[in-house]
Amino acid sequence: MRVRVVCVVLAAVFSCPSSGAAAAPIPPPRDVPYPAVLRLQVDATDFDHRMFHVNETIPVVAGSLVLRYPKWLPDNHSMTGPVELLAGLRSQEYTRDDAVRTLGELQPADRDGFLRERMEGHGPGAPLEGLARSGWRLLFSDQPSPFLAAVEKARKQSSFAFPLGLTIDNADGRIADVLRGSPAFAAGLAPGMTLLAVNGRAWSGDVLKEAVVAATGREGTIDLLVKNFDLFQTAKVADRDGPRYPHLERIPGTPDRLADLLKLRT
Asked: Of the candidates 241, 252, 160, which has an alpha carbon nearest to the alpha carbon of residue 208?
């Protein structure tokens, strides 16, 4: 099915004005019968982590369309944030077969395999080839970079994204984020829980850092006492890698493509 969305409005009002004409005012919301079938798919198989996925398909015809969504945006945990972060929102006016055929006409190649590899899947690990072609490589050390340290300070958070997959608000111990597939995720931790204690000691950023360092190369777990609504539970986080913070390092003898990009912005 071919669909076309000319104008989309989410949360605050965004419009797509036609050429040379002022955008029409957005009408107030009203209930009307919709002349098509809307499909809504909900995946709640991982609700233990307070995660669910919703896929909504709305058939439309050419013309102006207004969609209204709640201000509570996914992955933002508050009623703020850029509305473009609403994952998966897109207008579609061509099919996948159209894209494969058109790309093949521009330059003959396995465009179907190219799209599957680059857009619908990924190889083992992070996609670092583009970074290497830019003259840089990713390394990890036991100390945060100045940038990461500044981000932690500005957000008033303690980041243990590497290796635990955990970010915590310093003020109250609230878990702000958990990386999917991380040791914290595997232990059952989720955003919104409150961290109370680390290995039997009252929580603080320094206490958790000490526990991560002490666990380096050793068997066992880091035991985190958390409050989940009105329930208390102990999450046993398995980690032996110790503190790991990402850094970028130049590859000697290669062009610095990132510097070239930044020059265009200054």
From this structure: 160
